UniProtKB/TrEMBL annotation:
Residue ranges crossing the lipid bilayer per the database entry: none
Tree of life domain: Bacteria
Domain Novel STAND NTPase: 247-480
InterPro entries reported in the protein's UniProt record: nSTAND1 (IPR049052), P-loop_NTPase (IPR027417), Restrct_endonuc-II-like (IPR011335), Restrct_endonuc_IV_Mrr (IPR007560), tRNA_endonuc-like_dom_sf (IPR011856)
Domain Restriction endonuclease type IV Mrr: 20-106
Gene3D superfamilies according to UniProt: 3.40.1350.10, P-loop containing nucleotide triphosphate hydrolases
Protein name, as recorded: Restriction endonuclease type IV Mrr domain-containing protein
Source species of the chain: Acinetobacter junii CIP 107470 = MTCC 11364
GO molecular function, one term: DNA binding
Length: 543
């Protein structure tokens, strides 16, 4: 269960701080403490000096209500230092975020040294337990809700502390993904059916706010089961060409070069499995036409060979098909379920996204990825054409969802990796969320930047082309193909297809050589497929 301090987007920092203070004072009053002094108060943090009403004890309390991320080890060390240097009886940390891995290690170390009583840490679960014990709230009405919904369609409960009251909120799953939200008053456990109040709760910055808060009329299962359709989000996997002359990404048998890039990426997967790196992200970058998508197809083929098929599972999805910010989560769900069908991890776990903001923290997904770790396997989700989202400002939340998933993957350290194919010759304004996304993740990713083909690699492609057409090319014609393609695999392929078409039409190699491959007709053919308005736009661009 989670707990969140939630305010409307129009709220001030003081208003958020007031909600955090109210929660903290309730926690302290439960333990018979009163606040003596506010040392610091901001929207996300509150430091208090408190005195016990009976015993002669003064404690130092730090309250944290971070929106994202976990409590890091330096926060614990700094708080412990304050307690010791100032001579306080003890210190408290009240946090609506979980402890990070290193922070948990320090907590365990303090306990082993008999210092657990010197620092009391209230994580979300302990805060909720304390509020439950004091009857400030009641347990989430899971038993009440399963009268109307199958349990597998109910997500994880969150306690929302808002200006409008305290509420238990839960995501309703459709197709294994969060879709709608049901809210109950945290004290009375009565269903929130006032649409105006639901709209107010939805207007806050909770991690559920992007879901549908529309009033839901619940019927008992005997009367009518709430319709929960399978997710309508279609996830499109990266497609390869059907033949050598298909302009889509190259078939693995037609692929040339990039051996070092392939080996480095699979070495990276091995380091993840052996816990030799904390990174859980890689990026394939480079200009348009350098074969990033074709490299992804080659990675998929290698993952299917007899040496890797039970060790590495890769799913590559085309982000151009995204129509909503939930596309990323739908891709995650599809990847994990497909991997499970292929023999990765525990086959008995029902994989569901029950945590709307941090899907990897969903109970079933955490359990499943733990089983993948135990089997010494790795699952990889690759997003191709990710930069195409720059032109879809209505999908800006998608970057937040992807960032959350990557940060959680890095924090949880499972054998789960996220990859990106990212075009570097496109312009991204600094105001674009993609700009912040890409630069924020720079320290978390391993990068393979593709360079243009060498002459040797271009000659290998041309040799494959000669095998296809059943004739050898004139040496000068080969040279012209190599020079004209400028090291771009996509352009070399286009020129080879053009040459093939001309030879099929009866042209002679010497005529094509004399006419410089008749490249002008190649681009004339491309222009002939455009509308008049598109041609005019192209001409203006050239001017």
């Amino acid at each position: 269960m989670k707990i969140e301090i939630c305010v409307p987007s129009s709220a001030t920092t003081k208003e958020r701080g007031d909600l955090l203070e109210t929660l903290s004072r309730e926690m302290l009053e439960i333990q018979n403490f009163k606040v003596e002094e506010e040392v610091k108060k901001t929207g996300m943090e509150l430091d208090l000096l408190c005195k016990h009403n009976v015993a002669d004890r003064t404690i130092y309390v730090e309250c944290k209500a971070y929106r994202d991320g976990k409590i890091d080890a330096p926060i614990i060390r700094q708080l412990m230092g304050t307690i010791v240097l100032q001579g306080y009886s003890e210190g408290w940390l009240i946090s609506t975020s979980e402890l990070g891995k290193e922070a948990k290690g320090i907590e365990d170390e303090l306990a082993s040294k008999g210092l657990a009583g010197k620092l009391v840490i209230y994580t979300p679960r302990k805060i909720i337990d304390s509020l439950l014990a004091s009857k400030i709230i009641n347990p989430p009405p899971q038993a009440q809700l399963i009268q109307y919904l199958p349990e597998e369609n109910i997500g994880e409960w969150s306690l929302l502390i808002t200006p409008y009251g305290k509420f238990w909120a839960v995501a309703i799953l459709e197709g294994g993904m969060p879709s709608k939200v049901v809210c109950y008053h945290a004290k009375s456990l009565s269903l929130v059916d006032d649409q105006a109040l639901l709209d107010n709760i939805a207007s806050t910055d909770s991690n559920l706010s992007k879901l549908d808060f529309s009033k839901i009329i619940l019927f008992t299962k005997k009367e009518k089961k709430l319709s929960l359709e399978e997710s309508l989000i279609e996830v499109v996997e990266v497609q390869k060409g059907d033949d050598w002359n298909d302009y889509r990404p190259a078939r693995p048998e037609d692929f040339v070069g990039r051996t070092k890039d392939i080996n480095d990426i699979f070495d990276f997967f091995k380091k993840i499995k052996e816990k030799e790196t904390t990174r859980r992200c890689f990026a394939i970058t480079g200009n348009s036409g350098l074969g990033k998508s074709s490299l992804i197809i080659k990675l998929l083929e290698k993952a299917e060979n007899r040496h890797q098929k039970h060790k590495v599972y890769i799913c590559a999805v085309d982000v151009r098909a995204a129509k909503s910010s939930e596309y990323i989560y739908a891709a995650l769900l599809k990847t994990l379920k497909n991997a499970q069908k292929k023999g990765f991890g525990d086959p008995e776990i029902n994989i569901l996204i029950t945590n709307a903001s941090h899907p990897l923290d969903s109970e079933s997904i955490t359990e499943y990825l733990e089983s993948v770790d135990k089997a010494n396997q790795i699952i990889v989700l690759v997003f191709d054409q990710f930069e195409e989202l720059f032109s879809k400002p209505d999908l800006s939340d998608l970057f937040t969802n992807t960032s959350n998933m990557l940060m959680d993957a890095t924090s949880l350290q499972f054998n789960f990796c996220i990859g990106f194919a990212w075009k570097t010759d496109s312009t991204t304004h600094t105001e674009n969320p993609a700009y912040f996304f890409w630069h924020k993740l720079s320290e978390y990713r391993m990068v393979r930047k593709l360079s243009p083909f060498s002459d040797r690699e271009s000659h290998t492609v041309i040799s494959k082309f000669e095998d296809v057409i059943g004739q050898k090319l004139d040496g000068d014609l080969k040279h012209n193909l190599t020079v004209s393609s400028q090291g771009y695999p996509w352009l070399l392929k286009k020129l080879c297809i053009h040459l093939y078409d001309k030879l099929e039409q009866g042209a002679k190699q010497e005529d094509l050589l004399e006419n410089k491959l008749d490249i002008a007709s190649l681009f004339s053919d491309d222009l002939s497929e455009l509308s008049i308005s598109a041609i005019l736009c192209s001409n203006r661009t050239k001017i």
